[in-house]
Design brief:
It contains 18 helices and 14 strands. By secondary structure, the protein is mainly alpha-helical. This is Trehalase.
Length: 648
């Protein structure tokens, strides 16, 4: 809420409130001294708007074309600009100084740009042909790096105490590939270097461990008895540098960092729901706090400071109890009770090498190196080479510490325990997006087999984790941004030169299957909350009256692994990242996706509408051609490689 008066006068008025101020006293103080929330932004028209978005050119199915156009049209209602001309001299707003039009993270849920949301929004804007709007959003983030040295979590002052996965360099890369605007790259590059320096300086540590002296093998540490001690720099999600800690235990051994924008909620959680030792051993009974370290994003609340992590006995000594819990055979996705699942004690971001964060940093370093080379007539300068060497070392560290050769998968590595976590997260697939094309062929094949098994188990999309903690970043939730990452990871593996043609073809079919799953999930919930396509698809009869279709923050899986649908527009909030991801998927795979299929729902098509028939399922090979390739029919115990529309 912007101030109506200079800040000094607002502070004076607050200090004059009596110690026993009533609710009415406080309400009057707020009304007298503050403008309504949200009046510091205004909705605007998009200067580069087009009624003919390029991503629809290859989409022929009428239902998908109508859905895609509905997604495209939503950009018009999400465009905002800073609106502070009405403020008096000395008055303040919490909105950061963003000078260009931006797309909000949700029409009703946010009033500012958000950092990593912008990555997925820009993906969609570029596919929609709104390049100018995309460029303006990127410039806003670059300007914030110039002010703060990094990109804050969101565009308000209370977000400037933390950041999110540093995807800005990848955003600029996507923009350049769509526009070939080299001048923008030249202007952006100094800020990309500055953001990388921030993460490399304030969020990175030197890790010493044993590595094989056989440096020619990317997995040599596990293949040779000849070892050497090395020190490598890796990046961590925490700690936040600027937050204020509050005491959470009676002996002052525990501190918690509270989010300024959710201070009362977090404070109440600490003070009333947890007591002393229980703070670090009980599950969180609310979805306001995320078990985010093992779901791949920086935690909303960090439950201990550097002090408590470094001084003994460590409060994190109980954290491994979570990782030792056996999932019940009868219902592997049943919610754990407080006594069975340790949430707070396992969030140790100060000592966790996160695979997704370091994979992103690898991508950032490669991108910066490529930009430097591009701006020097495609010549690798000494600076360019240093970024490439840094990326190469980071990649090797992930292979040394986080890679599991028996599964082909990566896991977060805990420095305190000296071992990989056994809590699987979909974000552990990010390395395949970053460098899946350069993994040994055998490793790539094992990774594909593992991911394929997960996909067969969860037809609606890959869940963020396999633990039902009731939290927003755990099973059965799936987030569109992470499904985008999975698709990119499968594409990265598909480009691995060591895969056989047959395996590469199967990988492509698997990628398309993931894309179809993601589109189905978003479309079906949009449809059941009131979405329609005039002349093609009538509105769902069970939709809430007056609703027009929603893009949700996340979607939920049913017990059978299929997506579940809702008719309530209030269930999961509105998030624009879903809009961006779906537009990107439709544009990138336009000729390979078909009319969505919704569980237990028949689309109410307008008569005479012709839709694209669903493709038969891709059968992933499980036996070599020499074993069963010559059989004319598959027996019950032998699944042959089956040709399905050109895919083996």
């Amino acid at each position: 809420m912007p101030t109506r008066k200079p800040v000094s006068l607002v502070v004076d008025a607050f200090n004059q409130l009596p110690a026993n101020a009533t609710r009415d006293d406080l309400a009057k103080f707020v009304n007298d001294n503050f403008h309504p929330a949200g009046c510091d932004i205004k909705q605007v028209e998009l200067d580069d708007w087009t009624d003919d978005p390029p991503f629809l050119k290859g989409v022929t199915d009428p239902v998908l074309r109508g859905y895609g156009m509905a997604l495209h049209n939503q950009w018009k209602g999400l465009a905002r600009q800073r609106n502070t001309d009405f403020l008096c001299d000395g008055c303040e707003t919490s909105l950061l100084p963003v000078q260009h039009t931006f797309i909000v993270g949700g029409a009703n849920s946010t009033r500012e740009p958000r950092y990593w949301d912008t990555y997925y929004i820009v993906l969609g804007l570029l596919k929609s042909g709104l390049n100018g709007t995309a460029r303006g959003m990127l410039q806003n983030l670059l300007d914030l790096v110039g002010i703060y040295g990094f990109v804050p979590t969101g565009g308000r002052i209370y977000f400037t105490d933390r950041s999110e996965p540093p995807l800005l360099a990848l955003m600029v890369k996507n923009y350049y590939e769509a526009t070939l605007d080299l001048d923008f790259v030249a202007r952006a590059l100094p800020m990309l270097k500055a953001e990388h320096k921030y993460w490399d300086t304030y969020r990175s540590i030197n890790v010493t461990y044993t590595r094989s002296s056989n440096s020619s093998s990317s997995l040599g540490r596990r293949q040779s008895d000849m070892f050497q001690t090395v020190t490598s720099k890796t990046t961590l999600f925490g700690p936040s540098l600027f937050q204020t800690a509050v005491q959470t235990t009676s002996d002052e051994s525990g501190e918690g960092f509270l989010r300024p924008e959710s201070y009362s909620t977090d404070y109440s959680t600490f003070k009333t729901q947890f007591a002393a030792a229980n703070l670090f051993s009980t599950a969180i009974p609310t979805d306001n706090l995320y078990a985010a370290t093992e779901a791949g994003t920086a935690p909303s609340v960090q439950y201990a400071s550097i002090k408590t992590a470094m001084e003994g006995p460590s409060l994190f000594s109980t954290s491994l109890s979570r990782r030792g819990v056996a999932m019940p055979d009868s219902n592997p996705f049943a919610a754990f009770t407080k006594s069975e699942l340790n949430i707070l004690g396992s969030i140790n971001i100060n000592s966790t090498i996160a695979t997704n964060l370091n994979s992103i940093m690898y991508q950032v370093e490669v991108t910066i190196a490529n930009f430097i080379s591009l701006l020097n007539n495609k010549t690798d300068t000494a600076e360019c080479t240093s970024y490439r060497q840094r990326a190469s070392e980071r990649r090797q560290t992930l292979l040394d510490l986080s890679y599991n050769p028996s599964t082909g998968l990566f896991s977060d590595f805990h420095l305190t325990s000296g071992q990989q976590t056994d809590v699987w997260s979909v974000n552990s697939l990010w390395p395949y997006w970053a460098f899946g094309d350069s993994l040994p062929a055998e490793s790539a094949q094992r990774a594909m087999d593992s991911i394929s098994k997960l996909h067969k188990r969860f037809n609606g999309g890959l869940p963020n984790t396999l633990y039902n903690t009731t939290l927003n970043w755990d099973y059965p939730k799936i987030q569109p941004p992470l499904q985008h990452m999975v698709v990119q990871s499968v594409i990265g593996l598909q480009q691995n030169a060591g895969l056989t043609k047959r395996s590469a073809a199967a990988t492509n079919g698997f990628a398309v299957g993931l894309v179809q799953n993601s589109i189905d999930a978003a479309f079906c919930n949009w449809y059941t909350t009131g979405g329609d396509v005039p002349g093609v698809l009538n509105q769902y009869e069970g939709a809430t009256a007056g609703s027009t279709g929603m893009n949700f923050e996340f979607y939920s899986l049913g017990d059978n692994g299929d997506i579940t649908t809702t008719t309530s527009t209030a269930d999961q909030g509105d998030y624009t990242w879903t809009n961006g991801v779906m537009v990107w998927l439709l544009g990138q795979f336009s000729s390979q996706v078909t009319t969505p299929t919704c569980p237990n729902i028949v689309l109410n098509l307008v008569r005479n509408t012709t839709v694209t028939p669903s493709l038969p399922p891709v059968v992933t090979p499980t036996l070599s051609p020499s074993t069963c390739g010559r059989q004319k029919k598959c027996s019950t115990n032998c699944r042959c490689i089956v040709r399905r529309r050109g895919v083996f």
